[in-house]
Amino acid sequence: MATTGFKHLVVVKFKEDTKVDEILKGLENLVSQIDSVKSFEWGEDNESHEMLRQGFTHAFSMTFENKDAYVSFTSHPLHVEFSAAFTAVIDKIVLLDFTVAAVKSPVVVAP
């Protein structure tokens, strides 16, 4: 099993009346300005039963080359600033940070 980087996974439930589109634009802007973020994906749950999702609605995943790159990201001034705004609109959150153990690599589709 090969390791393929370091992952930062965030699962959230936003507070009522949160302008989620603005948060998403802010996240996309943030990751586009910080080179240590190798990839960024997000999604909104629309398939799980409420009982299973426990109120969580959105997931965000960032990939870094290694843990040091992640630590550098967390201390970046843009991340520190955005985190304050992000935290203010969160009702519930789960955070997982881990070294990736690749069992099956994603299929790369040529354009």
Describe this structure in words.
The mean pLDDT is 90. A four-stranded antiparallel β-sheet has the order 2-3-1-4. The relative contact order is 0.32. It is 35% helix and 35% strand. The protein is an alpha+beta fold and 111 residues long. α1 (20-33) runs antiparallel to α4 (77-88).
User: What is the H/E string?
Assistant: EHEHEHHE
Helical percent range? 25-40%
Strand arrangement, major sheet: 2-3-1-4
Estimated radius of gyration: 15 Å
Counting copies of identical and different chains, the oligomeric state is: single chain
Low-confidence stretches: none
Largest sheet: 4 strands, antiparallel
**Proportion of beta-strand residues:** 35-45%
Measured between the Cα atoms of the first and last residue, the distance is 28 Å
Look at the helices and sheets and give the structural class: alpha+beta
Chain-averaged pLDDT: 90
Q: How many strand elements?
A: 4
Q: Tally the helices: what do you get?
A: 4
Q: What is the molecular shape?
A: globular
Give a nutshell description of this structure:
It holds the Pfam family Dabb. It comes from Eruca vesicaria subsp. sativa (Garden rocket). The chain has helices spanning 20-33, 50-53, 67-75, 77-88, and strands at residues 2-14, 39-44, 58-64, 90-102.
